Amino acid sequence: MAAVTNHNNKPYEPLEYSTEEGSLRIFGFWLFLAADMVLFACLFATYLMYIHHTAGGPSSKELFEVKDFMIETVDLLVSSFTCGLATLEMRRGNKKATIAWLIVTLILGLVFIGFEVKEFTGMVQEGATLQTSAFLTSFFILVGTHGCHVSIGILWMLCIIAQLATRGINAQTARKVFIIGLYWHFLDVIWIFLFTAVYLTGLVL
Amino acid sequence: MENIKHFLGNFFVTGEPMIYMADVAIVLVSLGIIFVLTYFKKWKWLWKEWLTTVDAKKIGIMYIIAALLMLFRGGVDALLMRTQLALPNLHFLDSQHYNEIFTTHGTIMILFMAMPFIIGLFNIAVPLQIGARDVAFPFLNAVSFWLFFAGAMLFNLSFVIGGSPDAGWTSYTPLAGKELDPGVGENYYLLGLQIAGIGTLATGVNFFTTIIKMRAPGMSLMKMPMFTWSVLVTSVIIMFAFPVLTVALAMLTIDRLFDAHFFTVAAGGQPMQWANLFWIWGHPEVYIVILPAFGVFSEVIATFSRKKLFGYHAMVFSMVAISVLGFITWVHHFFTMGAGPGVNSFFSLSTMLIAIPTGVKVFNWLFTLNKGKIQFTTAMLWALAFIPNFLIGGLTGVMLAVAPADYQYHNSYFLISHFHYVLIGGTVFAAFAGLTYWWPKMFGHILNERLGKWAFWVFMISFNVCFLPMYLVGLLGMTRRMYTYPAGLGWTSLNLIETIGAFGMGLGFIIMVYNIYWSARYGERDTTGDPWDGRTLEWATTSPAPEYNFAHIPTIQQVDDFYYMKKEGRQKEISKAPYKPIHMPNNSGVPIIMAVFFFIGGFGLVFEWIWMGILGGIGVLACMLYRSFETHDHHYIPVDEIERTEREAGRFS
Amino acid sequence: MSNEHTQAHASEHTGFPWKHVIGLVLSLILTFAALWCVTSFAFSPALIVTVIVILAVVQAFVQLFMFMHITEGSKVWQITAIGFGAFIAFCVVAGTLWIMLFAL
Ligand code: HEM
Ligand SMILES: [Cu+2]
């Protein structure tokens, strides 16, 4: 365990950075996140371009429910918080607490996906589908791409929980917990922009 | 029965004798390869030494072999086109066939020839130049290579199964949309590029991390070799440009497979949004293939002028400036769309601005040559020829950047000539220069200089014979992508000259390939590891370099430190005993298996067999899962093995 | 290289996770503030959108600094990468809207 006993507020080296491999991968992951940001930017740009291209189909004002997307938002914000706590407990060397917070995060993630699936199926039942208009195509793909990221995150988190449970906290698992944390917070950031540019803006424009 | 016949008739491309010949050739070559491997019992060797390798040096060689094969295929496409255009009203190719051929030619040359060629050079030179043992993520590096390879194979498969894409390498909608282009050709384009593109993105992340975090002690950024600098800057462009390609391809795939409306006018989509996204990636892409070329020339010119590179800082800053500016010029590819004057003026200006840092670089090369003791080796000849040829391409580029004038030049042979001057005069010349320069490092022998010079002169002169007249024929009104033209427009003789030039380039390529064969058998062995009296660290180790690159990581004091090490006798430290065990990554079969699943999934989606796409996806996920749970992924090279290797290289006794 | 990533603080080892709680509270406040702007005011859409985008950017910073430890590791490079990514993202969105809406 890296200098867990260090109490005098001096900088210390967290376990996930303790190997060269760990610090390389964390760095590489930051780069991936920066690239992923550009990926989302393209989807955002296309969506914003098509906001009014509803081709006679339903518009954003008719489709978005304040209550639903607020629940999704708060759910995801809280999950980002719990994921942060998981990283914190990992750094304190508490395996059980780390796993517990990861599981809470994972459940919140599932709830989020549940709401999103409900939202999408509801829309499809009302006849608002991927094929209805350019607006809806870009809406479903933008929001759906974020949803895909979250789903992959959930699967990934499951793997990490399994590895933590069997191997405990070591340089390798610590790195993985830290990186999935980065990923999860990043998805929260993307969601903030979705919330703003898609849902809130949809109510205004 | 009828159904099956119908299906097979559509599945395999039929009708043209040329296609059947290709079918036969493919089957024969495959059988031949299988036979040779089995006969000489080489399967295990192939699997252990190559297919599962994570060693950047070997991955680099595989990239370059693939790139040369693709250069051949793209070159044959080019010759077919030039044959068709040699004289007016020929019927060598029909219009559909011509469309397919310029599409595959362009796509293959850019994505499956130029890209892997330069990425191959990254792999060969960068870890050595910065004194590293490998790249930051060797496993990911293998994944990148195999994804590129799977994508390239998928794309090439279209030739015999299902039919080739035919909407140009730019694949503009609505032409490339489902309504106007049913069939599987465009799906091949979309999925082949998608798979290869993901690999390239990973390469960008990998090399950026490698260069930032794994340099030898003492090598601050401003002491890096110029090629490494160019790769660093290129990696940045890759990381931020390729996600855009990923999105654009995915959107068009979704439009075609699921009847969505990103680019269909009827439901509110805008076809030009494809062009917009394509070029947001596409313009940075041209810098991705040209900046490493600049890097190669910087190394070659400095080495063979026996001088330090002139204006190191200016070189670096101009590359950084190019990388940023390169992201805000994309509209120059569709000035004629008719965006407002504000838009066209802005992008016209930003494009011209790029000419400034590029000009700075040209002057720096010239000043490096100035008063140098120039050695006219083959690599140097390519570099010297690059300067005027690239200049022609660049200056005509500035002409194209003038938005109102571009309404005249756009999509004419003037444009075709412009981008071939920069792509061939820049990237391809650099690929050949780099190949000649680093060949000893890759294989331990030197390419024959005499044959190399023949290849150079034949190729370079033919290149100008082929493409200089294209400027004229373009100004005379000949547009690109025409499959034939009438007589009497004043185009005929120019076209004939172009075709002669094209075949000359083919001859140059053949000489080059013969040179590879000849030199492998009789070429001079490189026993020193430093055949050119080089200036950078890759020349400090043996040729080829041992698996671990350097027995000790050197400490760097200045730019071109190896040159000074040699003067001061410091270079011996790198191989001096005693040694310590060296940490190395294990080989892995996962990357190639994962790429196979990508291929399967991609192939399924091409034919819109969703189940097969899902199957491939599950396979990919399974590979990732396996990898995630793997713990023993590295080993140590013991000291006695290092001693043995160094002794065999004559560096330790 | 190995000394540049020793930036985390040992205070993380004990006590109540104030930083995280503040981060959560801030994000909730910013989120509801944005919702409030949209539902309770009748300003011009342009103004409202500007305000909520600013709130979103602020919230992104909250995540980056409170939760994502962006200042650890090779922090200069990480911040540069994210910053450059944000710049390109901005160019893509603003550029696309400018070019493709044919408004100017
Ligand atoms: C042997 C050398 C080459 C010859 C003779 C050649 C010739 C041609 C010809 C005749 C065309 C089609 C013009 C038209 O009908 O519109 C073309 C297009 C093109 N070439 Fe080449 N080329 C050569 C090498 C290259 C290389 C090395 C690259 C890239 C690195 C390249 C990239 C392209 C591209 C992107 C197109 C546009 C395809 C399209 O219209 O979609 N070519 N080339
Ligand atoms: Cu361009």
Q: Termini separation of chain C (Å)?
A: 50 Å
Model regions low in confidence, pLDDT < 50 over at least 5 residues of chain B:
none
Number of strands of chain B: 2
Cα-atom radius of gyration of chain C: 18 Å
> What is the β-strand count of chain C?
1
Q: What share of the residues of chain B does DSSP label as strand, in percent?
A: under 5%
Averaging pLDDT over every residue of chain C, what do you get? 85
Report helical residue fraction of chain C: 55-70%
Shape of chain C: flat
Span of the ends, CA to CA of chain B: 74 Å
List the strand order in the largest sheet of chain B.
1-2
Which radius of gyration of chain B do the C-alpha atoms yield? 25 Å
Summarize the biggest pleated sheet of chain B.
Answer: 2 strands, antiparallel
The number of helical runs of chain B is 20
Assembly status: heterotrimer
Which strand-content bin applies to the residues of chain C?
under 5%
Question: Which small compounds were modeled alongside the protein?
Answer: protoporphyrin IX containing FE, copper (II) ion
Features:
heterotrimer; A: 205 residues; mainly alpha; Four Helix Bundle (Hemerythrin (Met), subunit A); 6 helices; elongated; B: 653 residues; two-stranded antiparallel ribbon; 2 strands; 1% strand; globular; binds protoporphyrin IX containing FE; binds copper (II) ion
Q: How does this model look, in words?
A:
Chain A is an all-alpha fold. Chain A has one domain (about 15-205): Cytochrome c oxidase, subunit III, four-helix bundle (Four Helix Bundle (Hemerythrin (Met), subunit A)). Helices cover about 80% and strands about 0% of the residues of chain A. Chain A contains six helices and one strand; from the N terminus they run E-H-H-H-H-H-H. Chain A is elongated, with a radius of gyration of 19 Å. In chain A, about 55% of the residues are buried. The model of chain A is unreliable at about 1-10 (pLDDT under 50). In chain B, helix 12 (about 380-400) runs antiparallel to helix 14 (about 415-445). The model of chain B has no long low-confidence stretch (mean pLDDT about 95). Chain C is an all-alpha fold. Chain C has two domains: about 1-70; about 75-105. Chain C has helices spanning about 20-40, 45-65, 75-100, and one strand spanning about 10. At the A-C interface, strand 1, helix 1, helix 3 and helix 6 of A face strand 1, helix 1, helix 2 and helix 3 of C. Bound molecules: protoporphyrin IX containing FE and copper (II) ion. Copper (II) ion binds near residues 332 and 333 of chain B. Protoporphyrin IX containing FE binds near residues 81, 105, 106, 109 and 424 of chain B. Chain B: It is an enzyme of class 7 (translocase). Chain B: It catalyses: 4 Fe(II)-[cytochrome c] + O2 + 8 H(+)(in) = 4 Fe(III)-[cytochrome c] + 2 H2O + 4 H(+)(out); 2 a quinol + O2 = 2 a quinone + 2 H2O. Chain B: Pfam families: COX1.
